[in-house]
């Protein structure tokens, strides 16, 4: 079998030093920069947001899913019945619930359970919203919060007290406190 020798084309000096390619790239970059500068000076919206000074709060869409929190009803009673559906459905397993029983002398003993411990690891949470969708008592909601910080991993695990503190109250029918059930 014969060997075929392919002759490479001779490159000009600017092609060998990639000057023409560099010039094409600079042309595209400068074109985008000038276009952006014209938009900014022409009164259109800014491209960059100065994060610590400016926040996205006013620009968040209605469907934005932020960090989960527990809510109470209008009488400051906890809505969670420790059914553990949110714990079972959570894809990254960020939720941990330890249920406890309600004493029989309590007027709401018919509910049977409440959470003794309810922890959400915000480092593991992916803000998917499945916990909110599966909750039968509407006890967990995703709030419009995107700046969750902590100095250690322990600070990023929100316990029941912290979750109720940041969740607030939610008004509406709760099956747990329904007299007819």
TrEMBL record:
Subcellular location: Cell membrane
Cofactor: [4Fe-4S] cluster
Alphabetical list of InterPro entries matching this protein: 4Fe4S_Fe-S-bd, 4Fe4S_Fe_S_CS, NADH_quinone_OxRdtase_chainI
Boundaries of every 4Fe-4S ferredoxin-type domain copy: 71-100, 116-145
Biological process, per Gene Ontology: aerobic respiration
GO cellular component terms given for this protein: plasma membrane
Broad class of where this protein is predominantly found: membrane
Protein name stated in the entry: NADH-quinone oxidoreductase subunit I
Organism encoding this protein: Prosthecobacter fusiformis
